[in-house]
UniProtKB/TrEMBL annotation:
Organism (species): Sessilibacter corallicola
CDD domains: SLC6sbd_Tyt1-Like
Keyword terms, alphabetized: Membrane, Transmembrane, Transmembrane helix, Transport
Bilayer disposition of the protein: Multi-pass membrane protein
The keyword Transmembrane helix is assigned to this record: yes
Transmembrane segments: 12-31, 43-65, 86-115, 144-166, 173-190, 217-236, 248-272, 309-333, 353-378, 384-401, 422-443
InterPro entries: Na/ntran_symport, SNS_sf, YocR/YhdH-like
Entry protein name: Sodium-dependent transporter
Length: 448
């Protein structure tokens, strides 16, 4: 059997894991959640919960992955053998594969929109405007073209493998994403209205903290880390036995939450700059406009009002969003591709073409039945399935996998693990606290 690929460096893993976590939801989700939930008070609660919920759950996936050195189905099947029920691990693993694939099927559509707006801003820079209405309009042809381009980019990276594909492109794209973020922040903060946005974002009013804020921060912390669908488990399976997992997990958590915070320094001031230019930034109910409406209505209006410099700002912004989308999508595609290569013996390029094409077909079906399927697939995967899978992965580590086996898996790269505060707290935390917190957020989501 051929040796399994590994990340060649700690930096490569951190960039890949952070890239998986830092996607479209992080860049538009965290800032608008912040502005809609008490501003800076939400930021404080989010950072606390990033380490109290996201970090322990992340560690569960990394420990399983590094120990198993395999895809999610084989990994959970092996752990379930400790209680004599390998079928349960297979069932949860297959469910995770399905959910990751469905997430990518709608995510690639949204990412295609980012590419189309990037194309529009690129043509505007060179003075070509006759295609603007097609590039920014919602048509099947436009959606299909840019969905195809985005899926081709994702499949290209995955087909190259772990070191030449995932690691190489993550270490190239993540620094570029960071540079674009900082450059855009510097520019936006020089505009009228930015100061008002900064006050909302950085000056906490702790009287705003309430159960809804805490639950929203909990959900953002969990989902922004790309947890619950096996992406971090797969990335963990490519780690060397020499790596200290608790330390690596802390670095990834810090990197993800820090870039989410930095994104807020861009998005929230930009929203209030748009308000200064006369753009409506609140819905009829008084809440801040968020999600696609923010990205494709509020901010483009802001870019247009900036005059000649606006086309360059728009280009940088949609390039930033496209990079964030790609670094997340490659981790999602890796989940089913890793299963296919390991269980069927198919080459990575062949497995990538097969699985990527299947997901592409699902995306087309969603486009053809957009009103009926788009929201349905999003709710099934992110609202219902991701929390359930997150709870399951915590239960595997906390209840199903033998405690001594868990300790031995962590001791690879951390010889004195049993004497550390991490080991004294984490096993009980992931056994009791994490499932309860995720379940509480799940119930809150169901209640709307």
């Amino acid at each position: 059997m051929a040796s399994r690929e590994q990340f060649s460096s700690k930096t490569g893993f951190v960039m890949a894991a952070a890239g998986s976590a830092i996607g479209l939801g992080n860049i538009w989700g965290f800032p608008t959640q912040t502005a809609s939930n008490g501003g800076a008070a939400f930021v404080v609660v989010y950072f606390i919960l990033a380490y109290c919920l996201a970090y322990p759950a992340l560690m569960a996936e990394l420990v399983i992955g590094r120990h198993s050195k395999s895809n999610i189905v084989s990994a959970l099947k092996g752990i379930s053998g400790d209680v004599g029920q390998p079928w349960f691990g297979v069932a949860v693993g297959v469910y995770g594969i399905i959910v990751a694939s469905l997430i990518l099927s709608f995510y690639a559509i949204v990412a295609g929109w980012m590419l189309s707006y990037l194309g529009e801003s690129t043509l505007n820079i060179v003075g070509i405007t006759e295609y603007n209405s097609w590039l920014t309009g919602f048509s099947f042809d436009r959606n299909l073209v840019f969905l195809t381009i985005f899926m081709a980019l994702t499949m290209f990276v995955i087909s190259r493998g772990v070191t030449a594909g995932i690691e190489r492109w993550s270490t190239r794209l993540m620094p570029l994403l960071f540079v674009l973020l900082i450059a855009l922040i510097i520019y936006v903060l020089t505009q009228d209205g930015a100061k008002e946005g900064l006050k909302v974002y950085l000056l906490p009013d702790f009287s705003q903290i309430n159960p809804k804020l805490v639950l929203d921060a909990m959900g953002q912390a969990f989902f922004s880390m790309s947890l619950g669908v096996g992406t971090m488990l797969i990335y963990g399976s490519y780690l060397s036995e020499k790596e200290n997992l608790p330390k690596l997990g802390a670095i990834v958590t810090f990197t993800d939450s820090s870039i989410a915070f930095i994104a807020g320094l861009l998005i929230i001031p930009a929203i209030y700059v748009a308000k200064e230019y006369g753009t409506t930034i609140f819905t009829d109910s008084g809440s801040l406009i968020a999600g696609p409406d923010l990205i494709f209505q509020v901010l483009p209006t802001l870019f247009e009002s900036m005059g000649s410099v606006g086309v360059f700002v728009a280009f940088a912004f949609f390039l930033l969003m496209s990079i964030a989308a790609l670094t997340s999508s490659i981790s999602m595609l890796e989940v089913p591709v890793s299963l296919t290569t390991e269980e069927t013996g198919a080459s990575r390029p062949k497995a990538t073409l097969l699985i990527g094409s299947a997901i592409f077909v699902i995306s087309i079906v969603i486009l053809l039945n957009f009103d009926a399927l788009f929201g349905l697939v999003i709710n099934f995967t992110t609202v219902y399935s991701q929390p359930i899978l997150g709870i399951m992965l915590c239960l595997f580590v906390g209840w199903i996998w033998h405690r001594n086996h868990v300790l031995n898996a962590i001791k690879s790269g951390m010889n004195d693990a049993e004497n550390t505060m991490f080991w004294k707290v984490w096993p009980y935390y992931v056994r009791f606290i994490c499932p309860v917190l995720i379940l509480a957020n799940f119930v809150q989501s169901l209640r709307g």
